[in-house]
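1st attempt posting a full record on here, be nice pls
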Amino acid sequence: YFPDAKLILTVRNPEDWYRSARVTIFNTMGETADPQSFGRAVIETKIFGGRLDDETHAIEVLEAHNAEVISAFPPSRLLVCKVADGWPNLCAFLGVPIPAEPFPHSNTTTEFRNRFAK
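the predicted structure (as tokens):
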């Protein structure tokens, strides 16, 4: 238990999130996936109620999750940000200087697919 821990909630446009999740995360949970796997048992069934193909429902689940996280943490311990915002807000929240190097961008659709193709 870490009562003073800070939390960073990354958010993005819900429709963009769904399009990305559908071709990456959700795509790994197809008919050939083990029904008892984490992805199928927890993500597909428990979190999304078996409705990964229902964009409206999936976005409602995402938005409810984000709202629950936001309501559970005091603003002093929570940073809600977009990864595209880069270093400034993140570093200010963490109380560290902004690095000279560019903010990293990883886990693209191609990188994700390549990891799961192995």
